[in-house]
């Protein structure tokens, strides 16, 4: 059975599970036809049942993936955590729609700014403490997304999209977007095969400098990016393990010697902060890596969020194929 078939099956099971755990009170269509005063009850990633006013459109998003999921189903959030950061880190893959109010940072949102918007719904991502959820719930219903799950990264991303759609009565829009995403993966898989790239190892990583030391964050099996590029025929060249939510590893430059020597190294940054092109050019371990010596290091375009939804993942895969395509 192909990976593409496995993803389709996982998506179907996820859809059935979400359908089973969500209810509408009183009975009505999940596409916005509920009578005035009705509510939709969903079970979020915490296992908490959340009652959301039917037809919620005034929504605050506290994580960038939540912004993207909302926009995917046709809802431009009225409030977004760190608008400027979103524009820099995610604005190319999934451009910000409307003119949302900035409600503070993703780690410390402003309760006053959120309350001033009088939202119908707040969408957050798992990882906050219980007290912060309680503060948010005093303002509006809070639906918490998983954000990521290294046991099934693509399935978790699609499940979060469907949860947002369930809470906002926009299921049809979500399913259309998922169908388009699946079709795009099929198209890209065909391109990978035609280019003779099937089985090529890729290794995506982030690089940081702190106190003169270089730290590398490789995307291990279980991270969203390897799951996506493996889905279209590539392999993950990084052999290490990652954390249980996001599948992210950590190593130093010397640790990169564990890379598959045939790997193409992929990375992304914003602006001029390019550890790989600057600080590492004088590092003998880095310059001695077979991938570096063979010129298989690719900086991808800025502005594609690496923990996003269907639009970001599609933009990322498009960028990967473009980087591996020989220049005419």
Automatic annotation (TrEMBL):
Tell me the protein's name. Answer: Fe/B12 periplasmic-binding domain-containing protein
A single Pfam family it belongs to is Peripla_BP_2
An example GO CC term for this entry is: outer membrane-bounded periplasmic space
Q: Which UniProt keywords apply?
A: Signal, Transport
Q: Is Signal given among the entry's keywords?
A: yes
**What is the native source organism of this protein?**
Agrococcus pavilionensis RW1
Q: Which GO terms describe its biological process?
A: iron coordination entity transport
Coiled-coil region(s): none
């Amino acid at each position: 059975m192909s990976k593409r078939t496995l993803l389709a099956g996982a998506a179907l099971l996820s859809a059935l599970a979400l359908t089973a755990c969500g209810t509408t009170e009183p009975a009505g269509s999940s596409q916005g036809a509920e009578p005035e005063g009705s509510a939709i009850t969903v079970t979020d990633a915490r296992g908490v049942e959340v009652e959301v006013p039917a037809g919620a459109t005034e929504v605050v998003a506290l994580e960038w993936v939540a912004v993207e999921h909302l926009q995917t189903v046709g809802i431009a959030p009225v409030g977004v955590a760190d608008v400027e950061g979103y524009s820099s880190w995610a604005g190319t893959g999934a451009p910000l729609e409307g003119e949302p109010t900035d409600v503070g940072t993703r780690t410390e949102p402003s309760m006053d700014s959120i309350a001033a918007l009088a939202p119908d719904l707040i969408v957050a991502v798992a990882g906050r403490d219980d007290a912060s959820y309680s503060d948010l719930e005093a303002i509006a219903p809070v639906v918490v997304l998983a954000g990521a799950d290294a046991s099934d990264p693509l399935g978790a991303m699609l499940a979060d999209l469907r949860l947002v759609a369930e809470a906002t009565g926009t299921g049809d829009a979500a399913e259309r977007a998922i169908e388009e995403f699946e079709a795009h993966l099929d198209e890209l898989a065909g391109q990978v095969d035609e280019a003779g790239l099937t089985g090529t190892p890729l290794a995506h990583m982030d690089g940081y400098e702190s106190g003169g030391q270089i730290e590398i964050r490789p995307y291990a099996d279980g991270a969203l990016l390897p799951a996506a590029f493996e889905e279209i025929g590539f392999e993950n060249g990084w052999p290490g393990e990652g954390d249980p939510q996001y599948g992210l590893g950590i190593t130093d430059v010397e640790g990169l010697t564990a890379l598959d020597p045939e790997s193409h190294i992929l990375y992304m940054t914003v602006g001029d902060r390019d550890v790989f092109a600057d600080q590492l050019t004088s590092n003998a371990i880095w310059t001695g890596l077979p991938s570096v010596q063979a010129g298989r290091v690719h900086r991808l375009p800025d502005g594609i969020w690496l923990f996003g939804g269907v639009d970001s993942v599609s933009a990322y895969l498009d960028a990967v194929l473009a980087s591996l395509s020989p220049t005419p």
